[in-house]
UniProtKB/TrEMBL annotation:
Keyword Signal part of the UniProt annotation: no
E.C. number(s) listed in UniProt: 2.7.11.1
InterPro entries in UniProt: CK1_Ser-Thr_kinase, Kinase-like_dom_sf, Prot_kinase_dom, Protein_kinase_ATP_BS, Ser/Thr_kinase_AS
The keyword Kinase is annotated on this UniProt entry: yes
Molecular function as annotated in GO: ATP binding; protein serine/threonine kinase activity
Domain of life: Eukaryota
Organism: Toxoplasma gondii FOU
The name this protein goes by in its record: Casein kinase I
Pfam families recorded: Pkinase
Ranges of residues in domain Protein kinase: 37-251
Family affiliation: Belongs to the protein kinase superfamily.
C-alpha cells in the first residue's frame, strides 16, 4: 500500500516465522484517539506504521487513523502531518482532523477515502476508457500542480497514492501519503541546493531517472518523470501537452 493508502486492503508483508528475535513486544494500539475517534480494524501497513479505519463518535463520520510508534528511529508521521496541514484546503487533499500523541504512538486522523487508481485499474481488468483516462489524468496533474505551488514535491507519485473519494466526492481524485514529501524552496524562497550521491527516495519502479542516479530533488526531473513513468502509458497520448506546460511553468 505504498506508505498507507486506503484502497482495497492488501495482505501485510510476511517475514520469517522462525520464532521470536528477542525484541520488545510492540505495544497495543490505542482504542480511542483524542477522546472522540474510535479505532477500528487495521486496513493496511507500511514503512510509516499502520492504518486503521475509525469513526468520530460525535457524528459518526468515518475516518482513517494512521499510527506510528513514537519510538520509531526515523519517524515520518510528524513530517507528513506538517506537509498535509500546509496543503489543507486544496481540492483532492485529505482533511487532517487531528494530529498528536496517544500513549506510545504518533497519531494522525484524516479523511477515509476509497479505492486507489491501481485497485480500480485492476477491477476494470486493466482497461480504462479514454473518457476515464482524461478525467483521472487531468485531476492527477491538478493535484501535483497544487503541491508544487506550495513549494513541495511528493517524491512517491504512483497509482497506489491516488485515491478516489467516497459518497458525494466519489469522482474526486485525492493525492495521499506525504511522508516522503519535501519542500524544494527554503525559508528564504531559494531553491534547494543541487546534490548528487543521494539514496533513492520513493518507489524504484516509478522513480525518475535523476532519482535513480542519485541527484537531489530536481523539480524538472520529477515533472519529466510524470511523462515517462508515473503517468501510465495509456494516458500519455492524451495529457502529454499538459505535462509539458507544467514543466515550463515550474522550471
Amino acid at each position: 500500500m505504498g506508505g498507507g493508502g486506503q484502497g482495497i486492503p492488501r495482505a501485510a508483508n510476511h517475514h520469517c516465522h522462525g520464532g521470536s528475535n528477542g525484541s520488545a513486544q510492540t505495544p497495543s494500539p490505542p482504542t480511542v484517539v483524542n477522546k472522540v475517534y474510535r479505532v477500528g480494524r487495521k486496513i493496511g501497513s507500511g514503512s510509516f506504521g499502520s492504518l486503521y479505519d475509525g469513526v468520530d463518535v460525535r457524528d459518526g463520520r468515518e475516518v482513517a487513523i494512521k499510527l506510528e510508534l513514537a519510538s520509531t528511529k526515523h519517524p515520518q508521521l510528524i513530517y507528513e502531518a506538517k506537509i498535509i496541514r500546509l496543503l489543507q484546503g486544496g481540492v483532492g487533499v485529505p482533511v487532517c482532523y487531528h494530529y498528536g500523541d496517544e500513549g506510545e504512538w504518533h497519531v494522525m486522523v484524516i479523511d477515509r477515502l476509497g479505492h486507489s487508481l491501481e485497485d480500480l485499474f485492476n477491477l476494470c481488468k486493466r482497461n480504462f476508457s479514454v473518457e476515464t483516462v482524461l478525467h483521472l489524468g487531468i485531476q492527477m496533474l491538478d493535484r501535483i500542480e497544487y503541491i508544487h505551488k506550495h513549494h513541495c514535491i511528493h517524491r512517491d507519485i504512483k497509482p497506489d497514492n491516488f485515491l478516489v473519494g467516497r459518497g458525494e466526492n466519489a469522482n474526486v481524485v485525492y493525492l495521499i501519503d506525504f511522508g516522503l514529501a519535501k519542500k524544494f524552496r527554503d525559508h528564504s524562497g531559494r531553491h534547494i541546493v543541487y546534490k548528487e550521491g543521494k539514496n533513492l527516495t520513493g518507489t524504484a519502479r516509478y522513480a525518475s531517472l535523476a532519482t535513480h542516479l542519485g541527484t537531489h530533488a530536481c523539480i524538472h526531473a520529477y515533472s519529466h518523470a510524470y511523462i515517462h513513468a508515473h503517468i501510465p502509458v495509456y494516458m500519455l497520448a492524451h495529457i502529454e501537452m499538459r505535462i509539458h506546460k507544467l514543466v515550463c511553468i515550474y522550471t
